[in-house]
Amino acid sequence: QKEVEQDPGPLSVPEGAIVSLNCTYSNSAFQYFMWYRQYSRKGPELLMYTYSSGNKEDGRFTAQVDKSSKYISLFIRDSQPSDSATYLCACTGGGNKLTFGTGTQLKVEL
Amino acid sequence: GAVVSQHPSRVICKSGTSVKIECRSLDFQATTMFWYRQFPKQSLMLMATSNEGSKATYEQGVEKDKFLINHASLTLSTLTVTSAHPEDSSFYICSAREGDRGGYGYTFGSGTRLTVV
Question: Cβ contact (<8 Å) for A96 and B34?
Protein backbone atom coordinates (compact mmCIF):
# COMPACT_ATOMS: atom_id res chain seq x y z
CA GLN A 1 0.00 0.00 0.00
CA LYS A 2 1.32 3.41 -0.93
CA GLU A 3 1.64 5.96 1.85
CA VAL A 4 -0.33 8.49 -0.18
CA GLU A 5 -3.10 7.42 -2.53
CA GLN A 6 -4.57 9.66 -5.18
CA ASP A 7 -6.95 8.94 -8.04
CA PRO A 8 -4.95 9.61 -11.21
CA GLY A 9 -7.99 10.63 -13.25
CA PRO A 10 -8.16 12.03 -15.83
CA LEU A 11 -10.89 14.35 -14.63
CA SER A 12 -12.70 16.49 -17.16
CA VAL A 13 -15.05 19.30 -16.12
CA PRO A 14 -16.74 22.23 -17.86
CA GLU A 15 -15.51 25.74 -17.28
CA GLY A 16 -17.01 27.24 -14.14
CA ALA A 17 -17.47 23.91 -12.36
CA ILE A 18 -16.35 23.21 -8.83
CA VAL A 19 -13.55 20.67 -8.81
CA SER A 20 -12.88 18.32 -5.92
CA LEU A 21 -9.54 16.54 -5.71
CA ASN A 22 -8.71 14.11 -2.95
CA CYS A 23 -5.97 12.07 -1.37
CA THR A 24 -5.80 9.58 1.44
CA TYR A 25 -2.73 8.75 3.45
CA SER A 26 -1.72 6.06 5.87
CA ASN A 27 1.18 7.53 7.86
CA SER A 28 -0.03 9.03 11.13
CA ALA A 29 3.22 10.98 11.44
CA PHE A 30 2.30 13.28 8.58
CA GLN A 31 1.68 16.80 9.91
CA TYR A 32 2.09 19.01 6.85
CA PHE A 33 -0.01 18.71 3.73
CA MET A 34 0.56 20.42 0.42
CA TRP A 35 -1.06 20.65 -2.97
CA TYR A 36 1.12 21.26 -5.99
CA ARG A 37 0.11 22.07 -9.54
CA GLN A 38 2.22 20.69 -12.38
CA TYR A 39 1.84 21.75 -15.96
CA SER A 40 3.03 19.39 -18.65
CA ARG A 41 6.81 19.05 -18.79
CA LYS A 42 7.29 21.49 -15.91
CA GLY A 43 8.20 21.22 -12.26
CA PRO A 44 5.51 21.34 -9.55
CA GLU A 45 4.53 24.68 -8.06
CA LEU A 46 3.07 25.03 -4.58
CA LEU A 47 -0.63 25.90 -4.46
CA MET A 48 -1.67 25.31 -0.88
CA TYR A 49 0.05 24.45 2.37
CA THR A 50 -1.73 23.27 5.49
CA TYR A 51 -0.48 22.27 8.89
CA SER A 52 -2.52 19.64 10.74
CA SER A 53 -6.31 19.49 10.38
CA GLY A 54 -8.47 22.30 9.14
CA ASN A 55 -9.34 24.41 6.15
CA LYS A 56 -7.36 26.98 4.26
CA GLU A 57 -8.65 29.24 1.53
CA ASP A 58 -6.74 31.20 -1.08
CA GLY A 59 -8.80 32.81 -3.79
CA ARG A 60 -10.59 30.10 -5.75
CA PHE A 61 -8.72 27.33 -3.94
CA THR A 62 -9.64 25.67 -0.64
CA ALA A 63 -7.61 22.94 1.02
CA GLN A 64 -9.07 20.71 3.70
CA VAL A 65 -7.32 18.25 5.97
CA ASP A 66 -9.08 15.72 8.16
CA LYS A 67 -6.43 13.92 10.15
CA SER A 68 -8.97 11.69 11.89
CA SER A 69 -9.83 10.05 8.58
CA LYS A 70 -6.45 10.72 6.94
CA TYR A 71 -8.15 12.51 4.10
CA ILE A 72 -7.06 15.66 2.29
CA SER A 73 -8.94 17.63 -0.32
CA LEU A 74 -8.49 20.50 -2.71
CA PHE A 75 -11.48 22.39 -4.06
CA ILE A 76 -11.28 24.69 -7.04
CA ARG A 77 -14.19 27.07 -7.54
CA ASP A 78 -15.13 28.63 -10.86
CA SER A 79 -12.63 26.44 -12.67
CA GLN A 80 -10.89 27.90 -15.69
CA PRO A 81 -9.18 26.29 -18.70
CA SER A 82 -5.90 27.60 -17.27
CA ASP A 83 -6.46 25.29 -14.28
CA SER A 84 -5.91 22.32 -16.59
CA ALA A 85 -2.89 20.58 -15.12
CA THR A 86 -1.89 17.69 -12.91
CA TYR A 87 -2.52 18.25 -9.21
CA LEU A 88 -0.28 16.47 -6.74
CA CYS A 89 -0.88 16.12 -3.04
CA ALA A 90 2.17 15.82 -0.82
CA CYS A 91 2.63 15.02 2.85
CA THR A 92 5.48 15.18 5.31
CA GLY A 93 6.05 14.67 8.99
CA GLY A 94 8.28 17.71 9.19
CA GLY A 95 11.52 16.09 8.17
CA ASN A 96 13.00 16.62 4.75
CA LYS A 97 11.16 14.02 2.75
CA LEU A 98 7.96 14.81 0.88
CA THR A 99 5.73 11.89 -0.06
CA PHE A 100 3.66 12.57 -3.15
CA GLY A 101 0.46 11.12 -4.46
CA THR A 102 0.39 9.96 -8.06
CA GLY A 103 -1.28 13.19 -9.20
CA THR A 104 -4.71 13.80 -10.70
CA GLN A 105 -4.84 15.04 -14.26
CA LEU A 106 -7.49 17.77 -14.61
CA LYS A 107 -8.89 19.20 -17.80
CA VAL A 108 -11.24 22.17 -17.73
CA GLU A 109 -13.09 22.47 -20.99
CA LEU A 110 -14.65 25.53 -22.58
CA GLY B 1 9.77 34.36 -4.53
CA ALA B 2 12.33 31.60 -4.47
CA VAL B 3 13.51 30.41 -7.87
CA VAL B 4 15.28 27.20 -8.81
CA SER B 5 16.89 26.99 -12.22
CA GLN B 6 17.41 23.56 -13.78
CA HIS B 7 19.39 22.90 -16.95
CA PRO B 8 19.17 21.51 -19.49
CA SER B 9 15.43 21.27 -19.99
CA ARG B 10 15.81 18.53 -22.55
CA VAL B 11 18.70 16.27 -23.46
CA ILE B 12 19.09 13.37 -25.83
CA CYS B 13 22.14 11.19 -25.42
CA LYS B 14 23.48 7.96 -26.78
CA SER B 15 23.42 4.80 -24.73
CA GLY B 16 26.58 4.42 -22.69
CA THR B 17 27.35 8.12 -22.36
CA SER B 18 26.99 10.28 -19.25
CA VAL B 19 24.74 13.26 -18.78
CA LYS B 20 24.99 16.04 -16.19
CA ILE B 21 21.98 18.01 -14.97
CA GLU B 22 22.43 21.22 -13.00
CA CYS B 23 20.15 22.66 -10.35
CA ARG B 24 20.73 26.17 -9.00
CA SER B 25 18.92 28.16 -6.36
CA LEU B 26 18.98 31.69 -7.73
CA ASP B 27 17.96 33.89 -4.83
CA PHE B 28 18.41 31.80 -1.72
CA GLN B 29 20.85 29.42 -0.16
CA ALA B 30 19.66 25.85 -0.35
CA THR B 31 20.72 23.88 2.67
CA THR B 32 19.14 20.80 1.18
CA MET B 33 18.50 19.74 -2.39
CA PHE B 34 16.45 16.84 -3.65
CA TRP B 35 16.42 14.89 -6.88
CA TYR B 36 13.26 13.24 -8.17
CA ARG B 37 12.40 11.04 -11.08
CA GLN B 38 8.99 11.06 -12.71
CA PHE B 39 7.66 8.59 -15.24
CA PRO B 40 4.68 9.50 -17.45
CA LYS B 41 1.45 9.78 -15.48
CA GLN B 42 3.23 8.79 -12.30
CA SER B 43 4.22 10.64 -9.20
CA LEU B 44 7.55 12.10 -8.25
CA MET B 45 9.83 9.47 -6.79
CA LEU B 46 12.57 10.78 -4.54
CA MET B 47 15.97 9.53 -5.66
CA ALA B 48 18.29 11.25 -3.22
CA THR B 49 18.70 14.07 -0.74
CA SER B 50 21.86 16.11 -0.56
CA ASN B 51 23.23 18.66 1.86
CA GLU B 52 25.94 21.09 0.90
CA GLY B 53 29.38 19.66 1.46
CA SER B 54 28.29 16.16 2.41
CA LYS B 55 27.49 12.94 0.63
CA ALA B 56 24.01 12.46 -0.74
CA THR B 57 21.57 10.10 0.90
CA TYR B 58 20.03 7.79 -1.66
CA GLU B 59 16.62 6.19 -1.47
CA GLN B 60 16.36 2.44 -1.44
CA GLY B 61 16.77 0.97 -4.89
CA VAL B 62 18.61 3.95 -6.38
CA GLU B 63 22.09 3.10 -7.62
CA LYS B 64 24.48 5.65 -6.18
CA ASP B 65 27.22 4.72 -8.65
CA LYS B 66 24.90 5.35 -11.54
CA PHE B 67 23.30 8.56 -10.31
CA LEU B 68 26.12 10.72 -9.00
CA ILE B 69 25.06 13.72 -6.97
CA ASN B 70 27.32 16.59 -6.07
CA HIS B 71 26.16 19.44 -3.85
CA ALA B 72 29.25 21.59 -4.11
CA SER B 73 27.80 24.84 -2.80
CA LEU B 74 24.70 26.25 -1.15
CA THR B 75 23.34 27.22 -4.56
CA LEU B 76 24.35 24.36 -6.84
CA SER B 77 23.70 20.64 -7.04
CA THR B 78 24.37 18.38 -9.99
CA LEU B 79 23.05 14.98 -10.97
CA THR B 80 25.16 12.93 -13.35
CA VAL B 81 23.58 9.90 -14.98
CA THR B 82 26.54 7.68 -15.81
CA SER B 83 26.58 5.10 -18.59
CA ALA B 84 23.01 5.97 -19.46
CA HIS B 85 20.71 3.34 -20.92
CA PRO B 86 17.25 3.66 -22.51
CA GLU B 87 15.59 2.63 -19.24
CA ASP B 88 17.06 5.77 -17.65
CA SER B 89 14.93 7.89 -19.95
CA SER B 90 12.68 9.89 -17.69
CA PHE B 91 11.80 13.34 -16.37
CA TYR B 92 14.22 14.42 -13.65
CA ILE B 93 13.26 17.22 -11.28
CA CYS B 94 15.32 18.91 -8.60
CA SER B 95 14.03 20.74 -5.56
CA ALA B 96 15.80 23.06 -3.17
CA ARG B 97 14.94 23.96 0.36
CA GLU B 98 16.11 26.85 2.50
CA GLY B 99 16.35 25.98 6.15
CA ASP B 100 13.86 23.80 7.95
CA ARG B 101 10.32 25.12 8.04
CA GLY B 102 8.07 22.14 8.54
CA GLY B 103 6.52 21.21 5.23
CA TYR B 104 7.16 24.58 3.67
CA GLY B 105 9.97 26.00 1.63
CA TYR B 106 10.41 23.48 -1.18
CA THR B 107 11.00 25.06 -4.57
CA PHE B 108 11.12 22.91 -7.67
CA GLY B 109 13.08 23.28 -10.86
CA SER B 110 11.34 23.04 -14.21
CA GLY B 111 12.65 19.55 -14.87
CA THR B 112 14.90 17.83 -17.40
CA ARG B 113 13.56 15.43 -19.99
CA LEU B 114 16.25 12.82 -20.59
CA THR B 115 16.00 10.56 -23.61
CA VAL B 116 18.61 7.87 -24.07
CA VAL B 117 18.77 6.40 -27.57
Answer: yes
